[in-house]
């Protein structure tokens, strides 16, 4: 009797019992509007991104090919035929390359040294670096004028000590120093996480194999940091190419840069040529695109190798 009851119980275990009245079988599945609710949170971001990112790009793209109300390449021909505009690109690339290289080198040494100090010191320096990376524009130019201007405090001290002769902040060398200064904090913030991939026992292993410190850095550390260094260099390059406020506050229009010429063409007091400014902006964006594409190609090859 017991075996019969047990077998009946097992046979009924596989049956699908009808749902009780009032029980909603689909209660565990959210409604369609609930599933799409997270997408609504993205709507403000999409609107802002479209207004401040996509719309200006489309405006630049369309107006760069407009001349006298017609589609034309006249703006690009004027830029390429003008030694003045070609010089602006040359000066911008020159400042961007030197400041990016110097800033990257100084930041690499500073980050490597920062990794050797206690954690509390690291946190304090990183916090200060974050604040310093936002110190740019007109306040930065004013600080450099006060410190390193013709009658700046540091300039007068170094001149009295005979350490500098003929230094001029309002020149190519002064601009490179200014650009390098605001590149260093950004480079440190970008390189700091990359050092997490370097194990502490690698140095000991390299020393046991007879490697000297410079060989350890050249053959072990730098290959690991290469993708981060390349990516940081590209970001620094873009940051320098797009710099405007600090340079204009320091030099006004006395130094020929692409960003200063774009500003003069859209907000100047004499000539207003927004379509020509759009062509300059498009060429600058294409330059950054080419540099970024080359960087991605190098990083891809380094990963496979």
How are the SSEs ordered, and which strands pair?
Blueprint: H1 2-13, H2 32-35, H3 37-41, H4 43-63, E1 66-67, E2 70-71, H5 74-81, H6 83-114, H7 119-133, H8 138-148, H9 153-160, H10 172-191, H11 201-208, H12 213-241, H13 245-251, H14 258-267, H15 274-304
Antiparallel strand pairs: 1-2
Describe this structure in words.
By secondary structure, this protein is mainly α. The chain has a single domain, classed as MetI-like (MetI-like fold, Orthogonal Bundle). The longest helix is centred in the first third of the chain and has 32 residues.
CATH H-level homologous superfamily name: MetI-like
State the end-to-end distance.
Answer: 75 Å
**CATH class category label:** Mainly Alpha
Order of strands across the main sheet: 1-2
Question: Which descriptor suits the 3D outline?
Answer: globular
**CATH fold-type name:** MetI-like fold
| Total domains | 1
Q: Give the integer mean of the pLDDT values.
A: 83
